[in-house]
Glutamate racemase (marine sediment metagenome), 158 residues
Amino acid sequence: MKNRIKPVFLLLLFLLFCAQIFYSFPVKIQLSGQEEKFDKFFLKNEVTVAVTDSGLGGLSIMADAVERMRESKIFQKVNFIFFNALFSNEGGFNSLKTRKEKIQIFDSALKSLENNYNPDLILIGCNTLSVIYDDTSFSKETNTPVVGIVEAGVGLIA
């Protein structure tokens, strides 16, 4: 049963990040060694999914995820949290001068997200944040599975 659920959920993640519907397309998202984290995730009846972005664009991703999860009925209950990682009203991550600054600020945001909301899954709905995620200390320390929009896109062309 678990092996059947995982591909369905991965497809949901892909659909979540892409505005188009590809129900019949076999999508394989690179999990970057997170398989064990996902195995634990799929054993739960109730989950909390956090969607993070560097602005409000991730709200549309979350709205789509809510609908997809409702339709899939994989879990008995799914709680969604939107976490805006935007650190300033003056400018976003692309206004920062160095990659190191971006990584440090996003790392802090992820740690705050996990400490305050304890999500079972984190979805990164921002290209910039998705690309720098693997360089955060959070990515090496967390037990929470994390999927970025870039991984979903790579899954489409792989």
User: Anything to note?
Assistant: The domain at 32-147 is CATH 3.40.50.1860 (Rossmann fold). The longest helix spans residues 99-117. The chain has seven helices and four strands.
